[in-house]
Amino acid sequence: MATVAFWIALGVIERELPSGTPGIVEFEFVRNASRASRFLAEWGAGGRDAVRLSLIVDYGFMASYGSFVTLSGLATRDFAREHGRRTLASAGRIVPWFAAAAAVFDAGENAFLLLTVGGHGGSAAPVLATTCASVKWVLIVVAVAYLIWGIGARLTAVLARRSAAS
User: Fold this and answer.
1) pLDDT in tens, 136-163
2) How many angstroms separate the CA atoms of 26 and 7, rounded?
3) CB 72 within 8 A of CB 161
4) Cα–Cα nearest to 130, from 151, 148, 116, 145
């Protein structure tokens, strides 16, 4: 529930950005100081305040999604071990931790973006933010794919039990 609540809050904050300007996800992939300057100018003072607030609130979101997806991955791993799903269980030794790592990279990304919004960090902060964002997205996509694989395994187990019972 916390993850959903933070996600909704972030969506509400993002609506404060001026229409037709880059959004937060686009800012995650700002790449360089020149683009960052353009984004900041397009947003104006009010938009920069909204971005700053979004980045701060996002720390709560990353703690909630990092915990939720990691714990869900560990539960998926345990299910796989109990039901003889060797490949799923084997992947579960490391993949659930990708979500926690994604949250750590997300925190780094936000720190570099906050430096950028504040006019600090020079030309390095946008590059480092984009690097952290790229790693974060790869890690979280793999972690969520693992959960989807686990859901498929659970559905297969339920259908097999129903079929055996009939």
Assistant:
1) 999 999 999 999 999 999 999 999 999 9
2) 16
3) no
4) 116
83: pLDDT confidence band, cut at 50, 70 and 90? very high
Taking alpha carbons only, the member of 125, 103, 127 closest to residue 114 is 125
Rounded CA separation 83/46 (Å): 54
CA within 13 Å, CB half, 90: 3
Q: Which secondary-structure segment (H or E) carries 49? A: helix 33-82
Phi-psi region of 17 (alpha: psi -120 to 50; beta: other; left: phi over 0): beta
CB 116 within 8 A of CB 22: no
* Tokens representing residue 134 in the block: 């790229």
Q: What crossing angle do the helices spanning 2-14 and 33-82 adopt, rounded to 10°?
A: 160
User: What CA–CA distance (Å, rounded) separates 110 from 96?
Assistant: 22
pLDDT digits (tens, 9 = 90+) for 108-133: 999 999 999 999 999 999 999 999 99
What pTM value is reported for the model?
A: 0.93
Percent of the chain with pLDDT over 70: 100
Q: Which residues contact 122 (CB under 8 A, 6 or more apart)?
A: 33
